[in-house]
Amino acid sequence: MALTRKSRTAMDVLKSNIEYISTYSKKIDDMLNGGIRIGVITELCGNPGSGKSNLCTQLCISVQMKYGVTSNETGTVIYIDTEGSFVPIRLQNMAMAAENHYKNENKNSMNTNSIEQLLKNVTYFRCINVAELIACLIQLKQIMTPERNVKLIILDSLAHPIRSIIDGDHLTRHKYIVRIVTMLQKLASENNCAVVIVNHMIAKVESQKNEAYCAPGSLSSQKKNIYTHDLS
Q1: Measured CA angle at 196 (ends 14, 15), to 5 deg
Q2: N or C: which end of the chain has fewer CB within 10 A?
């Protein structure tokens, strides 16, 4: 009698195909149901100094470690810096600390031969305005080859180039946001990589209630058009 495979639900199949990059913070990973999901966009929102760029630096390391990716399939990083917040020495220090941690546990977690190689696996772009950012994203289509094996794209941040559109009205800025995020989502899905977008909190005033509060920035307001995970 022929044996058939055990059936599974559509949800089981979906979950089995989902990959995550660990943030190395259990609380954050739990909030995200496992970590930074590969294949979609995750938005990090927070006030200045809240640790958004530090978390991005940590992800640059995590994605290159076997224990940092649920599938154990490590990869390289594209880091797009629009604010000048990327600090290479911080990345180096985090990498050394992570390597020492796993050595103490007798685990060979590094997918690279040296700290130097780990740094080389992070491709850095500095974009100061919207035009440079869009040109960079177009260029990524050519450089994201199977050999490069990009598993993570970081945009730190989206807010800065959008603010540089001095003469643009709300509609113009909205169009640029949708265009940029659509390009990033396409890169994520076509290359099976994670995309992390850093955004700032903005102050909103409720005149009728006579109160002010902080709210996520421009990307979060576009959720009806763009599929993202929001961590704020």
Answers
A1: 10
A2: N
